[in-house]
Design goal:
Structural class: alpha/beta
CATH topology of the largest domain: Alkaline Phosphatase, subunit A
Number of domains: 2
Order of helices and strands: HEHHEHHEEHEEHEHEHEHEHHHEEHEH
Oligomer: single chain
Shape: globular
Radius of gyration: 21 Å
Strand content: 15-25%
CATH architecture of the largest domain: 3-Layer(aba) Sandwich
Strand order of the largest sheet: 9-8-10-1-11-12-2-13
């Protein structure tokens, strides 16, 4: 029996409400050996209270030593084995903007980037342009035609866009063209099989035209492609857990992840205050609330230690408003670590605090990586967090006689 079948067998039709608050890229590292991480540096009285009253631990998004993308990181938190469900980023971005992906589509995440006169990447995110500029650049790219496929270009926000290639016999086993480095040229796309090679050739033609169309539009004068993906088949949260679920997320990709697993998508506005107001508004309607906070990740990727500390403190400030709703289970964690020291996702385990009306409290004084290391949850795979949430919410029956 696999995990999802066991959950279907044990789940109860009634029980408490669960809030999963995901501070993207929450885990960090000290800048100097023996120093404090961003979370340990931040003043977080409300998260610290949760750590005192709740139970803490460290989660492994995938496996020890494996650095996850945002897709695997979140699927693990939702209780899906990220090794079994490999979901490409492109389809998540497309679903996030509510693009209707068809069986003939390969969806791809696009990034505007900056290249110099020699075609070398100088900024992988084109200086994080405004969403208005992203829309204008996508309008230019939408004029590109590639023989044999339909091309759709849709803006997401800032430097991100979605490219969808539609046609017969297209595969999605194609490498990213983003080299994840500056000072080098974008990589050519190549397919691992015949169908994927057709997709790669179409992508290379698109990028060649993009270079021509955007050449005078620095800093958004080139694009890279990531996460080639077809639409997967995946069981919903309702089917597995029996939970009526909603997502309160600002960034489209995380809406896409939630839509993929069958959550309703709430209108979250554009700020953390908007998200809290949305949570309060929809509270009577749902059993499970996924609330996503992006800025702990983006500041980490920018290498800005102080800014990440500030964003953690801003998140801490809204915890009382969430607790005022009287959830039965409140979990605060991240989908992965993004240490500002590394300016990227990392493999480091992620701090978790689970507060519930029925938990064995750790009595910690601080929510931090160092204290979570000795917490009652121990170090565990993130895919088991939903089982813990269901149990603490009184939504599981007994296994066996």
């Amino acid at each position: 029996m696999n995990l999802h079948d066991l959950i279907r067998e044990l789940r109860e039709p009634t029980g408490g409400k669960i809030v999963l608050l995901v501070a993207d890229g929450l885990g960090g590292l000290p800048l100097l050996l023996g120093g404090k991480t961003e979370l340990e540096t931040a003043r977080t009285p409300h998260l610290d209270t949760l750590a005192c009253e709740g139970v803490c631990g460290l989660s492994l998004p995938v496996l020890p030593g494996i650095t996850p993308g945002s897709g695997p990181g979140h699927l693990g938190l939702f209780g899906y084995d990220p090794l079994q469900y490999r979901i490409g980023r492109g389809v998540l971005e497309a679903l996030g903007i509510n693009f209707q992906v068809t069986p003939r589509d390969v969806a791809i995440r696009g990034n505007f980037c900056t290249v110099d006169a020699d075609g070398l990447i100088t900024d992988r995110r084109a200086g994080r342009p405004s969403t208005e500029r992203c829309i204008a650049m996508c309008q230019k790219l939408a004029a590109i035609r590639v023989p044999g496929v339909e091309v759709f270009v849709e803006p997401v926000r800032e430097h991100r866009f979605v490219l969808v290639l539609r046609g017969d016999g297209l595969g999605d086993r194609v490498n990213d063209t983003d080299p994840q480095a500056t000072g080098v040229k974008p990589l050519p796309a190549a397919g691992e099989d015949d169908a994927s090679q057709r997709t790669a050739e179409a992508a290379n033609q698109f990028l060649a035209e993009a270079a021509r169309v955007l050449k005078d539009d620095a800093p958004t004068n080139m694009a890279t492609l990531r996460g080639f993906a077809r639409y997967p088949q995946i069981a919903t949260m309702q089917d597995i857990y029996g939970l009526k679920s909603t997502a309160i997320a600002v960034y489209p990709m995380y809406k896409g992840l939630a839509r993929l697993v069958g959550m309703d998508i709430a209108d979250a506005g554009s700020t953390l205050s908007d998200q809290v107001a949305t949570l309060q508004k929809v509270w009577p309607q749902y059993d499970f609330f996924f609330m996503h906070y992006k800025y702990t990740d983006s500041t980490g990727e920018d290498g800005n230690f102080a800014a990440k500390v500030e964003k953690i403190e801003q998140l801490d400030a809204v915890i009382p408003q969430i607790r005022d709703l009287n959830p039965d289970v409140l979990i605060v964690t991240g989908d992965h670590s993004t240490p500002s020291k590394l300016k990227s996702h990392s493999w480091h385990p992620v701090p978790v605090v689970l507060w519930a009306k029925s938990c064995r409290s750790d009595g910690f004084s601080k929510f931090s990586e160092s204290q979570c290391r000795t917490g009652g949850l121990g170090q565990f795979q993130a895919m088991y967090l939903m089982s813990l949430a269901m149990a603490h919410a009184g939504r599981f029956g007994k296994y066996g006689a």
